Amino acid sequence: MTLKVSDIGEKELVKYIIANSNDIVPDDTAITKLNDSNLISTCDMLIQSRHFPENMSYFEMGFKSVTVNVSDLAAMGAEPLGFLLSIAIPKDLPLDAFKKIIEGVLDACNFYSIPLIGGDMNEASEIIISGTALGLCDDPLMKNTYSLDDLILITGDIGHAALGFNMDSPDNIYVNKALKPIARLNEGILIKKAGASSATDITDGLASELYEIKKDGFGFMIYEEMLGISDEYKNISDNLNLDYLDLILHVGEDFELLFTISEDNLENLDIDYKIIGKVTSSDKVEITFENGFSQEIKNKGYEHYVSE
Amino acid sequence: MTLKVSDIGEKELVKYIIANSNDIVPDDTAITKLNDSNLISTCDMLIQSRHFPENMSYFEMGFKSVTVNVSDLAAMGAEPLGFLLSIAIPKDLPLDAFKKIIEGVLDACNFYSIPLIGGDMNEASEIIISGTALGLCDDPLMKNTYSLDDLILITGDIGHAALGFNMDSPDNIYVNKALKPIARLNEGILIKKAGASSATDITDGLASELYEIKKDGFGFMIYEEMLGISDEYKNISDNLNLDYLDLILHVGEDFELLFTISEDNLENLDIDYKIIGKVTSSDKVEITFENGFSQEIKNKGYEHYVSE
Questions:
Q1: What is the predicted ipTM?
Q2: Domains (ranges, CATH) in chain A?
Q3: What is the pTM of this model?
Q4: How far is B30 from chain A (nearest CA, A)?
C-alpha cells in the first residue's frame, strides 16, 4: 500500500519539513537577524473553495488575505514593513470582481499601514491568494516563553467567527467577524511593550492554539466564566443546534491574540483584554466550567489532509 | 456585456494594481529601504497544471519553485537572506511525492545558500507552490537604468528550455534546462560588482524581456550571430517543425540574466557571458539576422488570461 499525505496529516508533514531544515523557527513567523533588529516574515495561502465562504464578497476576500498574514506579524509584536500579493484568478472572472479583490487588499494594507510592495499574477481554475507579510521587531514575542503562574489573556471576543460561519442572516457582529476579521496589529505591539511573556494568534480555535503553545511540564487552566460568553451567543448556538463551547474551543478564524503576561506586568497593559486563565504545572490543558467542574480539553483543532 | 479579466489581459491587470498602489516599484522585485541596505523581496506562484510539464519529477517541481524566486533576486544583484514556502497539495498525493518535492526545495535552498525559514501548508486539488525569496542589496540593479550605446549581454544559453519543452527524449541539455533551470544568483552579484547598468531575468523570452525593460527614446539592436545558436539547435528545431528564432525570442523559462554594461566596465566582468547587442536611440526593439537584414522584433511574450 502506498502511503498518502492524508494518512499522516498536516502536522506530521510540517514536522517532516522542519526536521529536514536547520533554519525554521517553529513559531508564528520566520525570524531573521538583521543588524540591530529582526526581519519578521510570514506567508499564508487562501484558496477560494476552502477558505472563502459563499457569502464572502470579493472585497472581503482581498481584505482577509492581508489580515491572515498581518495577524502573524501581530503575534510577534512586529511593526509592519511590506506586503507581497501572489494572486491567481480564472480567466473568466469578471473584471469588476478582480478590481474588488484588489480594492480589498489595498484597503487592508492601508488599514494596517503595511504598503503593498509587489507580487505575482497567475491564471488558475479558482481564486488563490498567497500573501507574504514582512515586518521588523527588535525582540519578537515567541509563543511558548511563558512562566508558571503567568496569566493567560485574549484580545476581543473569541468564537464569534465560528458562530458567524453558521449563520445565514447578514450584518451582525458574528457574520461580520467571519467575513471580515481584523488582525490585532497594534495590540500585538502594545502587548510586547507591556512585557508579555508570549503570544500567538487564534486561527485554529482556542484549544488548538493552547496545544500549539504547550511545552513539557506546563499546563493551562482556562475558566469558562472568564471567556465572556454572552447569553445571546449561547441562545443563537442553541437555536442552530451547535454546542457554544465547541465553537469557542475548537473552531477558529477569530484572529484575536492569545498571550501570557506576569501579574506584575499586567498594569502596563494598555489595551482591551480578557484574562481567561493561568499557566499551571499540570502538564494538561484544562477548563473549569461555570458549574465549578474541571476537565481536560481535547485537542481537535482543524487539520488539513486527515482522512475522513 | 460584463468585461472579464481575459478581455483586458494580465499586463493591464498588473498595471491596474500598480496604478492603485503608491508603493510598488515596477521591477523584478520589491525594494524596501532598511537603514544601510535594501530588503529585496519577491514572490512567484507555480501551479501544477500550468507550470509543471508532465515529465517533470516531484524533486524538480520543488527545485524550480525556489529557482524562479531566486532568479528575481539574481536580477537585482542581491545576496540571499531567506525563502518562505507556501505549498498546497491534494490529500491523495503519495507521501513519497511530498517528500520528493520538499527534498527538491531543500536541495535548491542549499544550492543557492538561501535558508528555508518558514512557510504554510494547505490542501488543494492540485499542487500549488508559492515561494517568497528575501535578499539584501545595497544598490539594486534596476531593469531600465541603461544608457545609450551600453552593450546588451546575457549569461549562458537562451532558448534551450524552450526547445526542451518540445522534446520527448530525456537527459539532454535542452530537456535538463526545461526541467531543472538554474538561477544565476552568483552571476547577478558579480554583474552588479562589475558596474552593470541594468539587469533582469529571462522568464518570458528575450523579446518580451526587451520590451519589458524598454524606455521611451531608447531601443535595442540584437545580432542573431551573437546569440550563440548552434547547428544542433537549428537542426533539432527544424526536425520538430519549430522556428528556432521563435523559440529563442518568444519562449522563456531559461532564467538567464539579460543585462547591460558600458564598454568601459566590460573588463570588470568576471563571468561567462555573451554580448548580443547594443542600446540604441531607435526607440525600437530590432534584430539583425545572420544574412545582414534587420527587422523590428514583435512583442508576443506569454501572457495569462488573454482570450484565445
A1: 0.94
A2: 5-137 (3.30.1330.10), 151-296 (3.90.650.10)
A3: 0.95
A4: 5
